[in-house]
Design goal:
Helix content: 40-55%
Number of helices: 19
Distance between the termini: 63 Å
CATH topology of the largest domain: Rossmann fold
CATH superfamily of the largest domain: P-loop containing nucleotide triphosphate hydrolases
Bound molecules: adenosine-5'-diphosphate, magnesium ion
Shape: globular
Structural class: alpha/beta
Strand content: 15-25%
Mean pLDDT: 90
Low-confidence stretches: 1-14, 406-424
Number of strands: 13
Length: 424
């Protein structure tokens, strides 16, 4: 059955919501929404919005308790893409209450306030302080849907998704493994939706690492690029976990894969409108389209192992990408497969000095755990949650999503890393 609000026997459902307003709305992307309400009259239409078919991809949770409950909640939990707050406070008090929330709210989260005062000065104050919208109670289902849509769907809405591109300084250095594990960590830690796109069409391993065997995936997206829209993309995604979907590579050689520079643009743009995080698992090749994908990504993570060829390639990649992206932060560096017994290694310090980069993480070579995880189609954290590599993936997940260091103190944070470097 489709949207309940016209057909159900629920008394609320026949309140005469203007269906033309609702009909015009597009599906809401894969965002997480949490509401903190003080009255049933506000909680109810929000809950009903969560049941609407256009919200099928979004994750909505409604809590009772207003701004203060939200501030307490987020002191120890990640904030979602959208926080809706009901408050019965008078204007002056409301601003003070919101300050406490601002301290624990991730900068990437949007906040909508539903108040009980129809006050233009308050409205202006809130907007000036970064609140996305102020609604005055009572609110109806269509108001809630309308505000969510205006923030995340409207053509002038800010782009929702960040793209994270992962590329290796050489083949086989673990770039894909890191891309998959970090994506999984983001989806678990922050309950934030991630779409992983495996751009290595002939040889991609995301399907193996996530234990998936979908009939369709990225090849359909690229070879039917003219059909690309959110509905088409949704059909090509396979769900790996609650907040994680995969656009799998065909990983077969029945054809060759030569692409124009722009071949992946429509796909990446569509994915970014539909999901807060889009991971691009880029193969270790250098051609028009890989250069374009890397040049346009929001974040780039270069994975390298500590030998001379990796250092030379990483240096070339960093220099070239800095030239292509003069106004962006430098690519990030992960040193992987460290401490292989008997292998001579360039020390982390010697490796990173010429790159003028601090490594985001350093991960030891551990064939037992990485091999077991890969063979079982599991992530490292699912195989051994306490493994140092799982800790590193969590750290990378925090930094790439702009959450800085982990909220809870961790043993191997960035500080630990710096100390380690100093000791070497
Ligand atoms: N830290 C590590 N220790 C041991 N094996 C690793 C490590 N990181 C990656 N691997 C293994 O290395 C191989 C290549 O990894 P992959 O992610 O496919 O590399 P890339 O995408 O850079 O070509 C895989 O078998 C993977 O399980
Ligand atoms: Mg790879």
């Amino acid at each position: 059955m489709d949207a309940g609000f016209k057909h159900s026997g629920d008394p609320d459902a026949v309140m005469g919501e203007p269906s033309a307003e609702m009909d015009a709305l597009r599906p809401i992307p894969r965002i997480s929404i949490q509401a903190f309400c003080e009255t049933e009259a506000v909680a109810r239409p929000i809950e009903r919005a969560g049941e609407d078919r256009r919200m099928a991809k979004a994750h909505l949770r409604v809590h009772m308790g207003g701004v203060r409950a939200a501030a307490e909640h987020y002191a120890s939990a990640p904030t979602p893409n959208l926080v809706i707050l009901e408050s019965r406070y008078a204007p002056g008090e409301l601003m003070t209450e919101l300050e406490a929330l601002a301290e624990v709210c991730d900068p990437g989260s949007k906040v909508v306030v539903i108040g009980h005062y129809n006050d233009v000065a308050l409205y202006r104050d809130l907007i000036r302080n970064g609140i996305s919208e102020y609604l005055v109670a009572p609110v109806a289902l269509a108001d809630i849907m309308g505000v969510i849509s205006s923030l995340f769907v409207a053509p002038d809405a800010e782009p929702l998704g960040r793209s994270l591109a992962f590329v290796g300084a050489k083949g086989g250095v673990g770039s894909s493994t890191i891309a998959h594990n970090v994506s999984w960590a983001i989806s678990k830690l922050f309950s934030s939706d991630v779409v992983v796109a495996d751009l290595d069409l002939p040889f991609g391993t995301a399907n193996i690492n996530f234990d998936q065997d979908p009939a369709q995936g990225i090849a359909e997206a690229i070879f039917s690029a003219d059909r690309m829209d959110d509905v088409f993309l949704d059909r090509l995604l396979s769900k790996c976990a609650d907040h994680l979907s995969l656009l799998a590579a065909p990983s077969i050689l029945d054809r060759t894969y030569d692409f124009d520079a722009d071949a992946f643009s429509a796909l990446i743009e569509t994915a970014q409108r539909g999901s807060p995080i889009v991971t691009l698992d880029v193969p270790h090749v250098w051609n028009d389209w890989t250069r374009q994908v890397l040049a346009r990504a929001d974040e780039i993570v270069i994975t390298a192992t500590p030998d001379l060829a990796n250092l030379r390639n990483a240096k070339n990649l960093v220099d070239t990408l800095k030239r292509l992206r003069p106004n962006d932060r430098a690519p990030r560096l992960v040193l992987n497969q460290l401490q292989i017994p008997k292998r001579p290694e360039i020390s982390p310090q010697e490796f990173t000095d010429p790159l003028e980069l601090e490594p985001l993480a350093m991960i030891d070579f551990d064939p037992a755990i990485f091999g077991a995880a890969a063979n079982n189609g599991r992530m490292i954290a699912e195989t051994d949650a306490k493994h140092p590599a799982a800790e590193a993936f969590s750290q990378i997940a925090h930094v790439l999503t702009g959450r800085g260091e982990a909220k809870r103190p961790k043993k191997t944070g960035l500080l630990g890393l710096k100390d380690l470097l100093r000791r070497k």
